[in-house]
Amino acid sequence: MNLLQGLDAPEPLIVTLNRSAAIDPGRVIARMRYAHPLHDHATLAAQARRHEIQGRRRSWFAGAYWGYGFHEDGIRSARAVVQALDPQAVPA
Ligand SMILES: Cc1cc2nc3c(=O)[nH]c(=O)nc-3n(C[C@H](O)[C@H](O)[C@H](O)COP(=O)(O)OP(=O)(O)OC[C@H]3O[C@@H](n4cnc5c(N)ncnc54)[C@H](O)[C@@H]3O)c2cc1C
């Protein structure tokens, strides 16, 4: 995390999703619980209506929620917004 977040810490700060039982509890700074968004039929139905809100009242929406919820989906949705605003700005 030091490099990724630009943290100026004397020791390496590490995030893991795995093998938490193998870590000395005295070295754990924080435990956090996250849930990945659940993509179901309602999600697909809402995604199919994107055109109804996109660009209305000068508002554009970008986020991983437009896809499967992963990094690539966030990038793809942002790219689509840029392309809609200026088709020349994004190479095909
Ligand atoms: C534990 C975990 C592991 C993951 N691992 C991977 C992985 O390995 N690979 C991968 O591709 N994806 C992974 N993901 C998914 C990845 O985190 C998401 O794809 C990505 O963060 C989504 O980016 P985003 O910008 O769409 O949304 P977010 O990163 O959720 O950003 C949304 C932002 O909007 C802010 N916000 C929310 N509501 C409001 C409001 N009303 N007003 C103002 N601000 C608001 C939030 O605070 C947040 O900063 C992981 C997710 C989790 C939780």
Keywords:
mainly alpha, 3 helices, 92 residues
Descriptive report:
- With 92 residues, the chain is mainly α.
- It has a domain at 41-89.
- It has helices at residues 2-5, 41-47, 71-85.
- The radius of gyration is 19 Å and the shape is elongated.
- The structure holds flavin-adenine dinucleotide.
- Flavin-adenine dinucleotide is lined by residues 34, 36, 63-64, 69-71, 74.
Strand segment count: 0
Distance between the termini: 34 Å
Please mark out the parts with pLDDT under 50 across 5 or more consecutive residues, or reply none.
none
Structural class: mainly alpha
What integer value in Å does the Rg equal?
19 Å
Strand residue content:
under 5%
